[in-house]
Amino acid sequence: MRIKGLIVLCIVALMAFNYTTPEETVYNLSQKITVAEVKNGQVKVLINEKAFLKAANDEMTLTPKHHVDAFKILKNEAVPGGLYYIEMSSTKSSFKLVRALYNRNNKLVMDKEASDNDYLLHSYFVSCNGYGCSPALVYEDEQAYWICESSTENSSCERSVSIIN
Hints:
Layout: H1 2-18, E1 33-39, E2 42-45, H2 49-59, E3 70-76, E4 83-89, E5 95-100, E6 102-104, E7 107-110, H3 119-123, E8 125-129, E9 133-140, E10 143-150, E11 158-162
Antiparallel strand pairs: 1-2, 1-7, 3-4, 4-5, 5-8, 6-7, 8-11, 9-10
């Protein structure tokens, strides 16, 4: 019995020494990232959302008041064919951050490579801050762009644009 116990103890000890913790996922928001894929009309997120939010908070030097902690991928039908985008927000304040995604063969990609017509839409983050204030996608003259829209007359919206190179 003692020999079996020693063998089991040795096996467990070897397994414990060989165990490695998985590496933490780190994102560089200035590089191409395949964020999600679309299958049968459903969006499946492919990234580690917590690590992506951390990258947004770190790389964009957001103040603690504006740290984002919620992540969604949404589709806006204002643009012909629809446009998928990331929306990150803070559950502690009225802060929202958006960025358009390319739909490349049903892979939703965050990338700066674009034609002249849509480079600006896809290459920067837009933030909106204020009670009742939300990003809205406007499409006119065959161009899409972000504005910050207020749902109430008495609220003020602050808009800023962040480009990460």
